[in-house]
Write a structure and sequence with these properties.
Elements lengths: L3 H25 L3 H9 L6 H13 L3 H14 L5 H12 L3 H14 L4 H13 L3 H14 L4 H13 L3 H14 L11
Helix pairs in contact: 1-2, 2-3, 3-4, 3-5, 4-5, 5-6, 6-7, 7-8, 8-9, 9-10
Length: 189
């Protein structure tokens, strides 16, 4: 409805857009703290602001602040997957793998076949030497994306390190079909 309220709302939207533009420019220049301040000046409890602040704090390597903003964004949009995927990043970077896995599980409750969540969770299991669970997660991805060389390699190495050399050899052969000469698939199995 036109009138003073609509005009005030429009002005607020213009200010918000301008602050976002400034923060993008500052981020491009590598000025993460300035980009954060540009959005904090808005002093609003907004999904997009918290999502962006989560990203900027992640880029600035302030993991706890990043996680807090991603969690706030997730509360503001409970059906959204992106803040939960974002939350996985600072938690992984901080070595808080159990919490990152929990965020991944939350993504999978909303979007059961989410590629990003499954691949991050598989990598976390692999990096923690839980090769059996890593293989299971990589297998879920390979079932959906049979020609994804990176996920095939994750599956092959998980199987190999779990002692399942026959299955690993089959996977590495598939990788070599799709990516001839791939050095990560050329093993002595």
């Amino acid at each position: 409805i036109p009138g003073p309220r609509a005009s005030a709302e429009g002005d607020r939207t213009d200010v918000r857009a301008a602050q976002f533009a400034v923060s993008y420019k500052q981020e491009a220049a590598g000025e993460m703290s300035a980009a954060v301040r540009s959005l904090e000046e808005l002093k609003i409890d907004d999904y997009f602001v918290h999502l962006r602040l989560g990203w900027l704090h992640y880029r600035g390597e302030t993991w706890n602040d990043s996680a807090a903003h991603y969690r706030k964004a997730a509360r503001l949009a409970p059906q959204a997957v992106e803040p939960l995927l974002g939350l996985m990043l600072p938690l992984q970077a901080a070595g808080r793998f159990d919490e990152a896995m929990g965020a991944g599980q939350s993504v999978l409750r909303l979007d059961p076949g989410n590629y990003t969540a499954l691949s991050r969770m598989a990598w976390m299991r692999y990096s923690r030497k839980d090769y059996k669970k890593a293989a299971s997660l990589y297998m879920r991805l390979v079932e959906r994306y049979p020609a994804d060389v990176e996920m095939l390699l994750g599956l092959g190495w998980s199987l190999k390190l779990d002692g399942r050399t026959k299955g690993a050899s089959e996977i590495f052969q598939r990788v070599l079909l799709l990516s001839p000469g791939n050095p990560r698939a050329q093993t002595d199995l």
